[in-house]
Write a structure and sequence with these properties.
heterodimer; A: about 170 residues; alpha+beta; 5-stranded antiparallel beta sheet; 6 helices; 5 strands; about 50% helix; B: about 130 residues; two-stranded antiparallel sheet; 7 strands; about 25% helix; about 35% strand
């Protein structure tokens, strides 16, 4: 059975100022990544990657983005992300860089990694808390991080279905 | 006693055979222009600029940064000997194939000879004339 294999790159976009995160969306990240591939790897690069290049998931609050590309040419995408220094949207340039956290073959694997990563990040946030109020709010969100609560949470189920429907 | 490709480890000899052991590949290329009259006048720097621009078009900034050397350039016949790393040969060759114009004149790159050894480009039985 022929299966179209993809590679999913889980990246974190680190901005110069955290408030820039709300200005970006899936379309602008997609456009910027395509422009960067076209500039860095030329016509060959954009021709290889363009078909299955997609920003599957974008979290504006944390700056986490999941980019999909073809398995054979994911190297082109991963090397291009190193060269992106700003994101351009609506004639505004937001300086940033892409931090690749994880590369996987399925969305589910990236999800698992992201959950563990977020859990570790919360612990780090708790350590860096400055006021008592911040500390208490981080502590309550840490205690709420139980599997039972996550299963009731709807948004992740949509991505499991999307992975199965990948048949173009 | 030491043959190329044979390494001696203690008393046992080890022979390694690589599929493509060459570090560099040498290309003999010519630039052909369509109007056969006065033709194109290029300096060696302009010739290299054409090659780098071709690489940039097809393979982007990373392609343009490939170390390509013009070892010899003949201005009259517009032929040159290029040197490129073995792994980059495919990129260079494909970029040269897709060049359509140079300084607003229609032209094409003709790859006359490719070899991992520079000495092989020195003589050619088609062009060699014995008096």
């Amino acid at each position: 059975m022929v299966r179209f294999k993809s590679r999913y790159l889980l990246c974190e976009i680190v901005f110069e100022k955290p408030q820039y995160r709300q200005h970006i969306d899936v379309g602008s990240v997609n456009r910027n990544v395509r422009n960067a591939i076209s500039q860095m790897h030329g016509d060959f690069g954009i021709g290889c990657c363009s078909l299955r290049l997609e920003v599957t998931y974008l979290n504006a609050y944390t700056g986490i983005v999941l980019i999909r590309c073809q398995k054979d040419f994911y190297r082109i995408l991963s090397t291009t992300l190193l060269f992106i220094t700003f994101l351009e949207t609506k004639n505004q340039k937001f300086p940033c860089f892409f931090n690749t956290l994880h590369v996987a073959g399925t969305i589910r694997s990236c999800q698992k990694f992201l959950i563990q990563y977020n859990r570790r990040q919360l612990v780090l946030l708790l350590r860096d808390c400055k006021t008592k109020k911040e500390r208490e709010s981080v502590q309550t969100s840490l205690l709420q991080c139980s599997l039972k609560v996550w299963n009731e949470d709807q948004p992740y189920h949509g991505y499991e279905e999307m992975e199965g429907a990948d048949t173009d | 006693m030491s043959r190329p490709g044979v390494e001696w480890r203690g008393s046992a000899a080890e022979r390694r055979v690589h599929r493509n052991p060459s570090h560099y590949q040498y290309l003999k290329v010519g630039l052909e222009c369509e109007p056969r009259g006065p033709g194109l006048r290029l300096s060696d720097a302009a010739f290299k600029q054409t090659i780098v621009a071709a690489l940039r078009g097809l393979h982007g900034e990373i392609g343009a940064a490939l170390p390509v050397d013009v070892l010899k350039f003949e201005e009259r016949s517009l032929t040159a000997i290029l040197r490129v790393r073995g792994s980059d040969l495919v990129k260079l060759w494909s970029a040269l194939t897709l060049v359509a114009s140079c300084k607003d004149k229609k032209c094409a790159f003709r790859i006359i000879q490719v070899s991992p050894f520079l000495l092989a480009l020195a003589g050619n039985s088609r062009e060699f004339i014995l008096d």
